[in-house]
Automatic annotation (TrEMBL):
<keyword id="KW-0028">Amino-acid biosynthesis</keyword>
<keyword id="KW-0457">Lysine biosynthesis</keyword>
<feature type="site" description="L-lysine inhibitor binding">
    <location>
        <position position="110"/>
    </location>
</feature>
<dbReference type="Pfam" id="PF00701">
    <property type="entry name" value="DHDPS"/>
</dbReference>
<comment type="similarity">
    <text>Belongs to the DapA family.</text>
</comment>
<comment type="function">
    <text>Catalyzes the condensation of (S)-aspartate-beta-semialdehyde [(S)-ASA] and pyruvate to 4-hydroxy-tetrahydrodipicolinate (HTPA).</text>
</comment>
<dbReference type="GO" id="GO:0019877">
    <property type="term" value="P:diaminopimelate biosynthetic process"/>
</dbReference>
<dbReference type="InterPro" id="IPR013785">
    <property type="entry name" value="Aldolase_TIM"/>
</dbReference>
<comment type="subunit">
    <text>Homotetramer; dimer of dimers.</text>
</comment>
<dbReference type="GO" id="GO:0009089">
    <property type="term" value="P:lysine biosynthetic process via diaminopimelate"/>
</dbReference>
<feature type="active site" description="Proton donor/acceptor">
    <location>
        <position position="137"/>
    </location>
</feature>
<dbReference type="InterPro" id="IPR020624">
    <property type="entry name" value="Schiff_base-form_aldolases_CS"/>
</dbReference>
<feature type="site" description="L-lysine inhibitor binding">
    <location>
        <position position="84"/>
    </location>
</feature>
<keyword id="KW-0704">Schiff base</keyword>
<feature type="active site" description="Schiff-base intermediate with substrate">
    <location>
        <position position="165"/>
    </location>
</feature>
<comment type="pathway">
    <text>Amino-acid biosynthesis; L-lysine biosynthesis via DAP pathway; (S)-tetrahydrodipicolinate from L-aspartate: step 3/4.</text>
</comment>
<feature type="binding site">
    <location>
        <position position="49"/>
    </location>
    <ligand>
        <name>pyruvate</name>
    </ligand>
</feature>
Amino acid sequence: MDVRDTEGSIVALVTPFDENGQIDFPAIDRLVDFHIQNHTDGILVLGTTGESATMTDAEDYAVAKRVVDDVAGRIPVIGGSGSNSTAESLAKSRGLAELGVDALLLITPYYNKSNEDGIYHHFTAVLDQVDRPAILYNIPGRTGCSISERNVERLCTHPNVMGIKEASGSISYATTVAQYLSDDFRMYSGNDDMVVPLLSLGASGVISVWADVQPRVVHDMVCSYLDGDVRAARRAQLDGLELVHSLFCEVNPIPVKAALSMMGMISESYRQPLWPLSDPARERLSAAMRGAGLIG
């Protein structure tokens, strides 16, 4: 399996916790089975949706190992190893590689942010020393900084870069990135409400929160587009908008964990400062879930 060829729907997996706030490993097993059965094309662990910001390194490695073991080579597993500390990102990248993840997700250095050259060297310091391909992660709404056009151009030819997760929400930026796409540098939508628009620019798929609850729908939508059935892909994108918007009616991953709890997949438990949904948001999410046929 060549992870560099990954197309389709990569789920941004939640990390389930039990009522005592501990990692719920049997729930991880259920989620992995759910995604394998519903044709998810890849699994991302330890991303924003996975609440890695409030987990210890030991917990991160335990979750990654469980998912790698559960998947058993059937689909790619990508591990989030980004940090605002370059040394920490490198250490975590090496640790996840040793556990058997197929690729890494590297977010821009948040909070301290750095300038353009600093961000470039932050990435290359990791990329030069790991033996796994990596996806760059551009999400300025979370990090406060973006991967500049110049840095995309410089990084896209690095032998350990396989693509970019583009979550700026800007079609203009995505169009700029699309100039650099090739068989060796892919783009994945990081916004569930913009999957088809980015596919039209040459993206290979999506790293998706929506896929946590409707994995087959998201897989089929991307495959329809890649197979040339633009109309079916567009219809799936538009039909899913209310559910997608409800999954982001409060900060991710609060709504998606509530949704999975409604489906009986996990306990609705978070690490603080995340907190359960407000009543209005819960009503909106419940209505969207019923409308999508996910709950009665």
